[in-house]
Amino acid sequence: MKIALVGIGKIAVDQHVPAIAASPDWELTATVSRSGRVNGIEAFTGISEMLAARPDIETVSLCLPPVPRFAVAQEVLRAGRHLMLEKPPGATLSEVHALERLAQAQGVSLFATWHSRMAYGVAGAKAWLAGKQLHRGRIIWREDVRKWHPGQDWIFEAGGMGVFDPGINALSILTEILPTPLHLTGAEMDFPANRQAPIAARLDFAQNIQADFDFRQEGPQTWDMEFETSGGHLALRMGGNMLEIDGKETAGESDIMGEYPALYACMTELVRDRRSDVDLSPMMLVADAFTLGRRNIVDAFEF
Ligand code: NAP
User: For the Gfo/Idh/MocA-like oxidoreductase N-terminal domain, which residue ranges apply (predicted)?
Assistant: First the structure.
């Protein structure tokens, strides 16, 4: 199946292009980007131009930041093409509800992806936690924004989500592996004096779970979560890729193919079955944190 990739930035180049190249189902047929290119692939600078020129491309995958994404997403769906969205699926919840309705009306598939849910340890963690009573949980998601998002000023603009851009990956895993819906009871966010989005956030959940997200971590990076349960201790490390039970590393699922190849395999099934997959639960928790959270102003930040 032919696919076009829109927004040829860091994640498109690092993950989407190789995942599509390795897929038996997908052929990268066009790109849309003001400045990015993929060698040997027909390049357009605007979405309208691409949709008009290539009616044979049935599926479009968007790797744009959340704010410019909605207008492009609407245009793709109105043109009757299937649509795959990088996380987070929009700048607001309402936007994604609108896209869901539009996809349904057009009879096409919409996939709001959460790549971290495809990490090697996630399915095993979910299976192990089922039926156990959760006593407490702790999430630490601390990374260096200069290393992972070099020069990406959009991330600190309104709608860019700041530290929730990686933090939502932790929330996507949490909402996948826990047997009951999470309830956010409190939050505290640190906003740099010169920016519109938080550089750090601490969240409390009714299930006795705390999360600590921080973009200022230098040296070793941490993407860990740990749970005390009635049946022992579970830890997911390396962004969900390493699973430990009672301190011992367990073998990951050998048939899992890696995060982005797994997303494209899911998209194949959705398109073939004309289904959509849109789970907004991670994004609802971020919206709750912005609604309920206390705000601190901290030192200005420059890349
Ligand atoms: P990026 O490197 O800044 O690339 C963003 C792309 O979108 C570029 O190709 C950019 O320019 C295009 N774009 C179009 N309109 C834009 C606007 N108004 N402002 C900024 N860029 C605009 O960002 P990225 O890291 O690839 O992230 C893109 C999405 O992927 C985000 O939603 C992010 O959460 C998600 N993601 C990122 C990572 C990561 O590690 N970086 C991991 C997983 C998911 P052109 O028009 O020139 O193409």
Answer: 1-111
